[in-house]
Amino acid sequence: MTPVRWGILGTANIATVHFLPGLHAAGEGIAYAVAGRDRARTQQFVADNGIEQALEGYAELVADEQVDVVYVPLPNSLHAEWTIAALRAGKAVFCEKPLCVSAEETQAVLAVARESTQPLWEAFVFLFRDQTARLLDLVSAGAIGDVLEVQSTFHYPLSGRDDIRLDPALGGGVLHDGGCYPVRLARLLFESEAVSGTSLTRWAAEGVDEETQAILAFPHERRLLLSCAMFRRYDMVARVLGSRGAIRLSRPFHPHANDTIEIHGEGRAETERPNGDEPSFEPALRHIHAALRGEEAPRHLAVDEALGNAQAIDLLYRSARSGQVERA
Which one of 69, 147, 259, 277 is least enclosed by Cβ atoms within 10 Å? Predict the structure, then answer.
């Protein structure tokens, strides 16, 4: 069969580290073209990664009739503009998280997505991993009783102060970059949306949040406790607390083969390793290829799932700025 042809907007590091290894492992798809604003850098990216062609300017790639699906790893502030452009050009879109930098902007993008003939995904790739499926199976089977609380960290060390994640004009900030993951996990497990939120934030000199601890309240007295930070050692752990036990995931969002799920219930203490050694993006890209071929019904589409995350992040940013508990 003809491979699914991907167009990549920009030469972001995440495309090299995560997207391209996942694409190669998934099969049935190729990196057909990359578009960038710096011609020399784009050509070097193409040469380094075995991509068919370099295009100058994002508009040229979006308009290319050979492109089936567009990957958007641009700075957060550009996600809405180029996701809309790609959808209107008749392309499927896989946009890095966060889909947008506000709930209002998210609603505008989703309005276009609902009218499009092509699907839009927000790149929370952990949703497609076997580990997440196993977690949901355990919860639905009552392994820990009723889920009452999710605790999750997303800490990582930036290498310097010149990172775009510290630029407010580009939609930077640790809630947008890292805190969105625990929010997505809690929404998945609670199957509902946040009703209020409060946060304690350390603001960087550049004007973005570089560290945030927060509580999001959900219906039926359930809650997410999250901690996200840009200048701390790597720590990305989640604990799911239930009425009769707890589940701990050693790496919930980008697990490796040796990462574990620990189940602690009434008279039960078990450790499982549900992950293979596949690249983090592989299962999501394998699904996208199957969905675009009509072999699977599309799952985890942005039109169904993206707005709640944006609204929750907005709650926490309002709380951070006001010092008050904010309500939906």
Answer: 277
pLDDT digits (tens, 9 = 90+) for 28-42: 999 999 999 999 999
158: tokens are: 């930036």
How far is the C-alpha of 301 from the C-alpha of 305, rounded, in Å?
Answer: 6
CATH of the domain at 99: 3.40.50.720
- Domain assignment of residue 304, yes or no: no
| CA atoms of 58 and 66, how far apart (whole Å) | 14
How far, in Å, CA of 280 to CA of 197, rounded?
A: 30
pLDDT tier at 56, thresholds 50, 70, 90: confident
150 and 10 in a common domain: no
Same structural domain, 208 and 317: yes
CATH number at residue 206: 3.30.360.10
The whole domain housing 17 covers: 4-125+284-299
Asked whether residue 1 carries a pLDDT value surpassing 80, the answer given is no
Q: List for the chain the helix, strand, coil content (%; round to 5).
A: 40, 30, 35
pLDDT of the residue at 266 = 84
Q: pTM of the predicted model, to two decimals? A: 0.97
Query: If you average pLDDT over residues 220-237, what whole number do you get?
Result: 97
Distance CA 123, CA 240 (A): 23
Structure tokens that stand for 103 in this block: 């709930």
What does the DSSP 8-state code read for residue 177?
Answer: I
Q: Is 45 helix (H, G, I), strand (E, B) or coil?
A: helix
**pLDDT 10s digits, 166-215:** 999 999 999 999 999 999 999 999 999 999 999 999 999 999 999 999 99
- Cis status of the peptide bond prior to 98, with omega within 30 of 0: yes
Query: Quick check: is 97 catalytic?
Result: yes
Other C-beta atoms within 10 Å of 146: how many? 12
The tally of domains found in the chain comes to 2
Q: Which one is catalytic: 18, 79, 97, 300? A: 97
